[in-house]
Amino acid sequence: MPLPFTSNLETPILHELKDVGGTDSVRFLYLRLIQYFPSLSDAEIFEIKNGDNKRWRAAVQKAGKVLEEENYIQRRRGIWQITEKGRNAVEAETNGFSMTRANVDPLTHQDIQRMIVEVGEVLGFYAVTEFEFYDVIWRENAKSPRISHVFEVQSKGNLDSAFAKLKRAYDIHRSKPFLVLASERDTNRAIKSLNQEFLEIREHVTILSFVEFRKIHENLNAISDFLPAFLKV
């Protein structure tokens, strides 16, 4: 897809900085901003997460420069901080952009499992936790033998073990594999592991943080009453 206009990145940057307490490293913003642009292809998302998409980084940096020039943020050696003016802009939704604020309470492994089940049910899947040795699975229905989606939730522990489970589900069922990590800071470690031991599923795995999945959960719940009308064939 064509990269988003600088103006389309500005408000998401402000929202993300505000949601994490006001300050964050731009290298984590590169990853979290992906969720605002669902038209990005899987290949583009992989390149961004792997640090290979220089055009995406340039677009984010250009938006950051504009925000700094207008005193919405301050940038110091890769650390971006929202200003009071920036906070006020987010509160006022000056650009007409709206997204549910993430709850700042710490999320547990069980919280994320519950959210994954609820998202699956809203989307019409049969979803259960702790199925065999998987954290969460989705099926088309309760009687379907095939696991359509498989999720591993990692707050701590061995990433290679999680990838081995996802690979097994992909090999047997051609399941869509998801890895949900407690922190964006684990993403680079996960990508490195994919590039080394699990190349076979590298193009198929979707990596999300707890915060990203909570936003998916909150925003999907907000429109859950309308989804059946759109999804019904």
Walk me through the structure.
By secondary structure, this protein is an alpha/beta fold. It has 2 domains: 6-92, Arc Repressor Mutant, subunit A (Orthogonal Bundle), CATH 1.10.10; 109-231, Rossmann fold (3-Layer(aba) Sandwich), CATH 3.40.50. It is built from 10 helices and 8 strands. Strands 4-5-6-7-8 form a 5-stranded mixed sheet, sandwiched between helices. The protein has a 3-stranded antiparallel sheet with strand order 1-3-2. A hairpin with a 2-residue loop joins strand 2 (73-76) and strand 3 (79-82). Helix 1 crosses helix 4 (54-69) and helix 6 (109-122) packs parallel to helix 9. The protein is globular and about 55 Å long. It starts with 5 loop residues before the first helix and ends with a helix. Mean pLDDT is 83; it is low at 94-104.
Gross morphology:
globular
* Number of DSSP strand runs: 8
- Secondary-structure element string: HEHHHEEHHEEEHEHEHH
Assembly annotation: single chain
**Could you say what the CATH architecture of the largest domain is?**
3-Layer(aba) Sandwich
What characteristics describe this protein?
alpha/beta; Arc Repressor Mutant, subunit A; five-stranded mixed beta sheet; three-stranded antiparallel beta sheet; globular
Outline the fold blueprint.
Blueprint: H1 6-19, E1 23-25, H2 26-32, H3 42-49, H4 54-69, E2 73-76, E3 79-82, H5 84-92, H6 109-122, E4 126-131, E5 134-139, E6 149-154, H7 159-173, E7 176-181, H8 187-196, E8 206-209, H9 210-222, H10 227-231
Parallel strand pairs: 6-7, 7-8
Antiparallel strand pairs: 1-3, 2-3, 4-5, 5-6
Helix pairs in contact: 1-4, 1-5, 6-9
